[in-house]
Design brief:
This protein is α/β, with parallel strands linked by helices. The protein has 2 domains: about 300 residues, TIM Barrel (Alpha-Beta Barrel), CATH 3.20.20; about 100 residues, Jelly Rolls, CATH 2.60.120. About 25% of the residues lie in helices and about 20% in strands. The protein contains 11 helices and 18 strands. The strands form 4 sheets. Strands 1-2-3-4-5-8 form a 6-stranded parallel sheet.
Length: about 450
């Protein structure tokens, strides 16, 4: 906060770089900075205070460090940026365009040294039980074409981090675990210059969190493949849930509904993850943007309790949604990367989609498939799920959007150990355009 005058005007130099996008209005930032400054003046070290309260309640405290965050990177003078980033543009990724070209290049020793200083400060200053290196903010780590050689560089660097956590653990008198957040698919992580499986086999990490980046919760992460690749390493595997839902990249975003979060969590645990990791799940639902109609502090706490008890989780109604993988290749701009693993929109006289639905519920539960199509067909299409016919009916959609094709399914037709195959065939051979697909599971009404 060097140069900030809390009594000064909004156009003072410290605030001059703030724009109007990405939550960067001056009023919000002044409130944030004023709060931080007030804590500092009172001698309050906020992370240390939180760590103490965690220990008081028997919670193991971790600190997560974002390895390459790019918030507000289009605003060079924004106060969120470090002096290191602002004064060293030559250390940013080369050969790319857009926001992620402004991420720092971990192929440069200066960048690795800078991050290591932050890690050293964290380990020296705070008595933590775990340190997470968040490579999903951002996975864009190397200049174009340097990702392959970057893997060896990053592995050697991570070995140094591991040694530092061991020394800190010896000094503190208790273990300090090391974890990472990585793209949701092993082969994609490797494309970015990350080697989480190799790191696990070498004993460099204790925790791996596989995650989408931001655009949507990913309902079909390959957790079983991760489990197989990590077999014998003893590494804890978590599946991360994002707080937004999109069926495809150009679709409007919305906040995840509790039934959808329950479904994604049930899928992650069913596929073999050791636990669920929530990203941006705030108690008031504020990060969801438009979730006020279904999100509250009580619902939030109830959802957390269910996710902590898998046997309870599978008793809850849940909605599984066809979404996509939002990080696929390091040439991505604005977080999208090359198109890949995108099922929607799907067009044709016959459309085939896949969607896992986690543990198959009891036979007396209800299952319903909802499809949204544009334009709306004159006659309901024929719908099969794993070859079993569903009873389809056209129903109006809220908000004036495309109408829904709602189909009752026999629960016994759902697959327990693989993705379900959904086949939609036009009644008259006219091409369909499917924009949304979900399967909702709920206990039979009493």
């Amino acid at each position: 906060m060097t140069g900030y005058d809390p009594d000064g005007p909004d156009d003072q130099p410290f605030l001059a770089g703030i724009g109007t996008s990405d939550n960067t209005d001056v009023t919000s930032w002044r409130r944030l900075v004023d709060g931080m400054l007030a804590l500092h003046r009172q001698g309050i070290d906020y992370p240390a205070r939180v760590i103490a309260r965690c220990r008081h309640h028997g919670i193991q405290p971790w600190i997560s460090l974002r390895m390459n965050d790019v918030h507000c990177q289009d605003l060079e003078k924004h106060p969120i940026h470090s002096d290191f980033w602002r004064t060293n543009p030559q250390l940013r990724r080369q050969g790319y365009e857009g926001t992620y070209s402004r991420a720092l290049d971990y192929g440069r020793p200066e960048v690795r040294a800078h991050s290591m200083k932050l890690i050293d400060e964290t380990l020296d200053r705070y008595d933590i039980d775990g340190l997470e290196l968040d490579f999903m903010r951002e996975p864009y780590l190397f200049s174009r074409g340097k990702e392959e050689e970057g893997r060896a560089i990053l592995t050697a660097w991570l070995a140094e981090v591991r040694e530092r956590t061991r020394k800190a653990a010896a000094r503190r008198g208790h273990p300090i675990r090391l974890g990472i957040r990585t793209p949701s698919r092993p082969e994609v992580a490797v494309l970015f210059g990350l080697e989480p499986v190799e790191w696990a086999r070498r004993g460099l990490v204790d925790l791996i969190v596989v995650a989408p980046r931001w655009a949507t919760t990913e309902f079909a992460m390959p957790i079983r493949e991760w489990r197989r690749l990590l077999d014998g390493t003893g590494v804890t595997l978590l599946g991360a849930l994002e707080v937004l839902v999109r069926p495809y990249r150009a679709a409007d975003q919305r906040g995840v509904a509790p039934e959808e979060a329950i479904a994604a969590a049930a899928q992650v645990l069913h596929d073999g993850a050791d636990g669920v990791y929530l990203f941006n799940y705030f108690p008031d639902g504020s990060a969801t943007g438009n979730a006020s109609g279904w999100w509250s502090s009580d619902v939030y706490r109830d959802m957390l309790r269910a996710m902590a008890a898998p046997a309870e989780l599978v008793k809850r109604p849940r909605r599984h949604v066809v979404t996509f993988s939002d990080v696929n290749h390091p040439d991505g701009n604005e977080g999208w990367g090359k198109a890949g693993r995108t099922q929607l929109p799907a067009t044709g006289p016959e459309v085939v989609l896949t969607l896992p639905t986690g543990p198959r519920p009891p036979a007396d539960w209800q299952a319903e498939l909802t499809l949204r199509l544009d334009p709306v067909p004159a006659k309901p299409p024929a719908v099969l799920v794993n070859g079993a016919a569903a009873v389809a009916a056209v129903a109006g959609a809220a908000g004036g959007g495309p109408a829904g094709i709602r189909s009752a399914l026999p629960v016994t037709s759902l697959r327990d150990d693989d993705a379900n195959e959904i086949t939609v065939t036009a009644a008259d051979g006219t091409p369909l355009r499917v924009l949304w697909a979900d399967i909702r599971l709920s206990p039979a009404p009493r």
